[in-house]
Amino acid sequence: MSEVEAILPAVKLLGVGIAAIMLARLLKTSPIVTFIAAGLLIGPFGLGVIEENGTTRLLAQLGVVFLLFDIGLGFSLKTVRESKRDLIGLAPVQMILCTAGFGLAGWLAGMDWLLALLIGAAAGISATAVVTQTLAERGIATCPLGRSATAVLVFQDIAGIFLLVIAVALSEGGGGDLGAILGMSALKALLAVGAALLAGRFVIGPLFRLLSKTRNDEIFTAAALFLVLATAAATGALELSLTLGAFLAGMIIADTPFKTVIRTEAKPFGALLLGFFFITVGMALDWRMMVEQAHWILAALAVLFVLKTALTWAAAIINRWSLAGGAQLGFALAQGSEFGLVILALPGIAAALGAELTGILVAASALSLALTPAWASLGLRIARRIADATASRKPVSAPEEMNCPVLIFAMTPSGRMAYSALTRFDIPVIAIESDPDRFLSAIADGFAVTFGDPSDTRLLRAIDVTEARALAICAPRYEISAEITPYIRENFPELERFVAVTDEADRRRHEALGMHAILNRSQPEGLDFALALLRYAEIPESDIHEWMQDVIEAYAPDPAFRVAEPA
C-alpha cells in the first residue's frame, strides 16, 4: 500500500465528518445520526466512496478510546461521594431492570440467553452526550433531576466499560469455557484498575506537576495523549479492551488539578475520532435491507422507548422518587447509546445476531438519538400533568429534622440555582412557590417544593422563621418587600434577607430596605445569587470554585455532539 492509499481514507473520513457536523447543526439533531447516515451513503452498500480497511478500523477504534477517556475524566472519588445515593440505589436498579426486561424480550425473540442479557444490558445504557445536552438546553442540568440523571449516566458508563470487556471476551473467546473466559477477564480488569490507582497516586500526579513547571503546552498535551494511548495499549496487551485502558487513564487524571486543561486539549481529538467510528458503523449497514425492514426498525424503536421509559420510571419509584420526577427521568434516559453501537459493531456480536438483526438494532438506536428531544418534551408534559394531579398544596411547615434551613421563595432560574447549590453542600432548604406553572414545573424536575404566598405573614409564622438561616427571594417585587420588611424587622431581626434583582435601580431600592440585593450578571442565570448564598453559608472558596466549574461545564457540553442550539 502506497502512502497516498494509506492516508486517503482518513482524508475522505475527515471531509465526510465535517459535512455531517454541518448538516446536524442545520437540522438541529445529534451528529451521531448524521454520521451514521453519512456512512450509509458512502459505504460499500451505498456509493462505495470508502472501503473498510486497516486505516478506517484504527481511526474508529481510536474514537471509542477517546470517548472512554473523556468518561474516565468525569469519574472521580468526589463524584462517588456526591452522588453515592444515586450510584448505590437508583442507577444499579435501573440497569438491573433494563437488563432483565430487554434480556427477557431478546430471549423470547429467540436469542441465546447470554447474548440476550448482553444486548439487554447494552440497551439499558443511555447516550451520555445526547442526554447532557438535552438537560443543559432545558436548564435542568444542576437541578435534582439533572444531578440524578448525570449520576445514572456515570454508573452506566462504568458498567458499559466492563460490559465491553465481557463483550470483547465473548466475541474473541472462541469455543473456550465461558466461566474461565469471564473469570480471567474480571481478574485482569481488577488488576488493571488497581495498577491505575497506584500509578495515579505515585507516578502520574507527580509527573504532571513536574511537567506543569515547564509552562510548555505542547509537552503537556503530548503527555496526556501518551497516557491515553499507553494505558489503552497496556490493557490491550492483557487481552482486555483498549477502551478499559482509556477509561483508567481518564480516571487517573480525574482527581488531579490538571483535569480541566487536559479535557480541553483532548476533546477535539476525541469528538472527531468518535465521529469516524459512527461513520464506520453506518458503512456496515445495507440501506436496501433497512428499507425492506422499516416496519421492524420502527417496532424496535417503539419497544426501546416505551420499555426503557417504563423500567427507568419503575427504578425511580422503587428509590422513592415522586411519580412526576420518575416519569421525566424515564423519558430523558430512554434512548440507545454510543456503547450499544460499539457493542453491536463487534464482529463476534454482529455475527451472532446476524446482519439483518444487527442493522435493525443499529438503525433503531440511531433514530432514538435523533428523537430524544421530542421524547423528552413529551415526558415533561406528562410529568407536569402527573404533578398537577398529585402535588400537595397544603400549608408548609418546617420539618423537625431541619436545622437552620434557607428559605427560598420562587423557583425561578435563580431559585433553582440557589436550591441546587445549597443542597450540593448539604445545607437544608425549604422552597416555596406561589406561581402554579413554576410550582408544577419544579416538582416535575425533582425539586422538593411547596405551594405558598411569600407576602402572607402567616406563612412565615407557620414555617417558624426563627429557626431559619436566611431568606432568599428569587422573584422580587419591591412593593411586597417594602410591605413585609417592618414585620420581619420586628419579629425576626436576625434573619438575613437576600434578593435576586435584574437592574441597578432595583438593587439600590432593595438595599435601602436592609436586604442583600444580588445583581445577576453571569451565565447561567442565577449563578451570582447562588455564589452569594454559598459565601454567606461560609462554604470554603475552593469548594465554591469547584462547584462553579461543574455548573459551567454542565451548561456547556461538548458542542460537537449538540442536539439542538440552546434556547
UniProtKB/TrEMBL annotation:
It is found in: Membrane. InterPro entries: Cation/H_exchanger_TM, Na+/solute_symporter_sf, NAD(P)-bd_dom_sf, RCK_N. Residues 18-373 form the Cation/H+ exchanger transmembrane domain. The chain crosses the membrane at residues 6-24, 31-50, 56-75, 87-107, 113-136, 148-169, 189-208, 220-238, 244-262, 269-290, 296-318, 330-353, 359-378. It is a multi-pass membrane protein. Signal peptide: none annotated. Pfam families: Na_H_Exchanger, TrkA_N. Keywords: Antiport, Ion transport, Membrane, Potassium, Potassium transport, Transmembrane, Transmembrane helix, Transport. Residues 407-520 form the RCK N-terminal domain. PANTHER family: K(+) EFFLUX ANTIPORTER 3, CHLOROPLASTIC. This is Transporter.
